[in-house]
Amino acid sequence: MSRLSVDIIIPVLNEEHSLPHCIATLTNYLSEGVDADWDWSVTIADNGSEDATPEVGRQLSDDHPNVRLTRLEQRGRGRALKKAWLESDADVRCFMDVDLSTQLDSLEPLVDAIGREGYDVSIGSRLLPDSRVERRTLKREVVSRCYNALIRLMFPRKTFRDAQCGFKAVSREVADKVVPHIENTGWFFDTELLLLSLRAGYKIKEIPVHWVDDPDTRVRVVSTAIEDIKGLLRVRFSPANVPRIES
Length: 247
Known about the structure:
The protein is α/β, with parallel strands linked by helices. It has 8 helices and 9 strands.
């Protein structure tokens, strides 16, 4: 079996304190706990940090040969992911949140769905029967379920349950052909990726995850929900802007 190149993106904004623990935990796991046939790398994708995150990221990339830093002066999680994924040449391009809310034992199934099973996109899902979710507030749970129900209403042929889990991977082809067409630069990036991929005919697999919610999350639930709804309306009623890409 041929070796599989895997690049894992960690988008960061003002994470000087969280980043060293994330990189230490992730690189240790990748060195000891994953498929030996992976050629893996980790990319820290900084988007407009104003603290010492860029300096910390550069030091970590100096300390770890498989870690690199890419930086944008403009903020936007989606903008950072888009840049990092388009710069990468890996067969499978992933991302996860710096707080490592998704337990790392789900990483190998996420990558294997693309690298071994022939899917084009794989996503962690907190809403599958086999998933475990801890410490999530009622407010965040209700907002998430209502948002995903809205997607099912607006896009009846949707075949995924959890659009927002910060744990996803795409194939080289999806990165090259779909990601350049994503317009959103913020939190709606995830949903737009999935909807564009489905319209283009790509296959998506959902992976059950063990998710431990971060009580110190930077996500602003209400403003993010408004951004997401505006994004859904844009994609739903502007079909000409969503290219149908032959796989």
